[in-house]
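AAA+ ATPase domain-containing protein: structure tokens wanted.
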Amino acid sequence: MSSSSSFTGGGGGYDMPWVEKYRPTKVVDIVGNEDAVSRLQVIARDGNMPNLILSGPPGTGKTTSILALAHELLGPNYKEAVLELNASDDRGIDVVRNKIKMFAQKKVTLPTGRHKIVILDEADSMTSGAQQALRRTMEIYSNSTRFALACNTSSKIIEPIQSRCALVRFSRLSDQEILGRLMVVLEAEKVPYVPEGLEAIIFTADGDMRQALNNLQATYSGFRFVNQENVFKVCDQPHPLHVKNMVRQVLDGKFDDACSGLKQLYELGYSPTDIITTLFRIIKNYDMAEYLKLEFMKETGFAHMRISEGVGSYLQLCGLLSKLALAREKAKAA
Ligand SMILES: Nc1ncnc2c1ncn2[C@@H]1O[C@H](COP(=O)(O)OP(=O)(O)O)[C@@H](O)[C@H]1O
Ligand SMILES: [Mg+2]
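Answer:
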């Protein structure tokens, strides 16, 4: 893999976060989201980058893609021809008016078809005032300077910016895609593991590669061995087996057992949000009748809504279990 071989960081790199150590440096090495990645590859090859908005959930490669693209387009000119502004930098109206404008006015000699690039990471956290100022700068300097914005939700970018940009959508990575990347890192770092440990990492990451790599590294540095047990200790999420048991008990008509299982989790200190998030994922993958699964998901969705509105009590979760039990009764009678 060129991404791992192109890494030149210090020695064993023992203190380096793996998310950085194994961040792909070329667009081709970015895993998943084939449509998005191939569009970016065309731009990397042909130049003339349009203004871009990359949007999608965290840990799917948006920042990585922009950085790789800018490096491929500008090579040795990267330093003087790229302005990177992260969420931690001040990006209020004044910065847009001054810093970005000054950069846009700066003369840099580039090959034809190449432009200076302003990278605005997590652009959805910019105020709409700053975005308005940005939009004008974008317009005035479009001959020499292009913008690449990354965000979780493109709807938080003001309409006039959206309409000046090509939108590239990213979605969660599949379990297979995450597994593939984990294997590369496992091999390079010589991490001992059992397959169930990887399954646990993939389960907790839920399509987020950053989370997967961080959980892998945390498990390894804490226990030197990746198995299910260690992963759930490190990730501090309810153990899926425990939650799965609750679902099975409901399906077996053992409502009281399900409730006491829930009580145990609650007393271990897991928040209702943690519990219900895991519960939903378990139900989604549970081998059960389609009709019943849909009912279960519906009820879990409603309970999730009540919890996120603030009613996150033990009673609320028990109420959900009873709704699930009733749905099962109804399905059996039908
Ligand atoms: N599609 C991907 N392919 C390979 N590695 C990825 C991918 N997405 C994320 N990563 C890993 O996770 C880290 C964080 O990714 P990043 O691009 O910053 O995500 P975000 O979409 O939140 O901007 C990267 O440094 C890289 O190690
Ligand atoms: Mg990012």
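The chain has 17 helices and five strands. Strands lie at 52-55, 82-85, 116-120, 145-151, 166-169.

Cheers.
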